[in-house]
Design a protein that fits this description.
There is one protein chain. This protein is α/β, with parallel strands linked by helices. The protein contains ten helices and eight strands. α9 runs antiparallel to α10.
Length: 313
């Protein structure tokens, strides 16, 4: 194997007992048949699976010393664990992909070809979305808002699946970010990249752990990391609401002074005003809270993950 370039394959997993054996076999066969001029290492990073995933990974590691594993003491979320896996590779290039076959193994040779052509980053971009109409609409609004209010364009239909040169991995190591949003980092700090479209496959087995909360978490992490619009919106929105309320208050005062006996202001305008201002305040306190949460998580400098065990390192 001496003289061959080493390509690391990072496979984050959580409750993937039906996929880990098949995905490792598919990757190994790819290097035996197509990428014969390259050496490989596979790095599983398990986010505290509750099924037989770890048992199966241990067996895979026993059979092939090029397969490595990191077991987290608990579930550290959808961002930290894959990111930490990238940092613990030793390849000349690193491929990050899902363990459930939704990221096609067949695309890896295209990534390697682009890498050999001089691209330090080659990523897979989905051609179409498998989301329902409501989710597609929300994502479209989100991407348009990020594009308009940030100087960093987020990459549409990109989940992190791709090949990254060791120079870019070194950039990640120097970031020291306890709450990394990898997709945004690729767009913001990445080298010249090649985007390769692909059709997302179906999960071979198991059930996706993505839900509304995880999607919201991803959106808010990107929103607070790459835009100032939330804070600016709170500032300008509060000023506008104050101005409108002040004008209405002056109008009511003038009307009451002119038609003292005939004009009954009543309680309804006061209640509506209080409800309007209260709702505006709560909304903007929530937005500011998201920024404060992001700042708090970064200043605490907690580790990305805490390891319970590592194999074949």
């Amino acid at each position: 194997m001496e003289g061959k370039k080493l390509i690391s394959i990072v496979l984050p997993c959580y409750n993937e007992e039906g996929n880990v054996e098949k995905i490792s076999e598919a990757v190994i066969n790819l290097f035996k048949n197509e990428l014969i001029n390259y050496d490989y290492e596979i790095v599983f990073i398990d986010n505290d699976s509750k099924d037989r995933t770890r048992e199966l990974i241990r067996n895979i590691c026993k059979k092939d010393k090029k397969v490595k594993a990191i077991f987290n003491v608990k579930n550290f979320g959808q961002f930290n664990s894959p990111y930490y896996g990238l940092l613990n590779t030793s390849g000349d290039a690193v491929v990050s992909m899902a363990s459930d076959f939704q990221d096609p193994v067949e695309l890896i040779p295209q990534f390697v070809k682009a890498w050999e052509e001089g691209y330090k980053i080659a990523i897979g971009v989905r051609k179409t979305s498998t989301d329902n109409f409501i989710l597609r609409t929300l994502k479209k609004i989100y991407y348009n808002m990020i594009k308009k209010f940030s100087n960093v364009d987020q990459i549409k239909m990109f989940t992190g699946f791709g090949l990254y040169d060791k120079d870019f991995i070194e950039v990640l190591r120097k970031l020291d970010d306890p709450t990394p949003f990898f997709r945004g980092i690729v767009a913001e700090l990445g080298y010249k990249r090649k985007e390769i479209p692909f059709e997302q496959g179906k999960r071979e087995r198991g059930k996706s752990s993505n839900n509304f909360y995880s999607l919201y978490d991803a959106a808010m992490l990107s929103f607070t990391s790459y835009t100032k619009i939330g804070l600016r919106l709170a500032t300008f929105g509060g000023a506008i609401a104050f101005t409108i309320s002040l004008i209405i208050a002056i109008i009511y005062l003038v009307m009451k002074l002119i038609w003292w006996d005939r004009f009954q202001a009543g309680m309804i305008p006061m209640l509506l005003g209080m409800l309007f201002l209260g709702s505006v305040q709560i909304l903007f306190i929530g937005i500011i809270g998201e920024y404060v949460l992001a700042i708090n998580q970064r200043t605490m400098k907690r580790p990305l993950v805490v390891e319970e065990e590592r194999i074949n390192f």
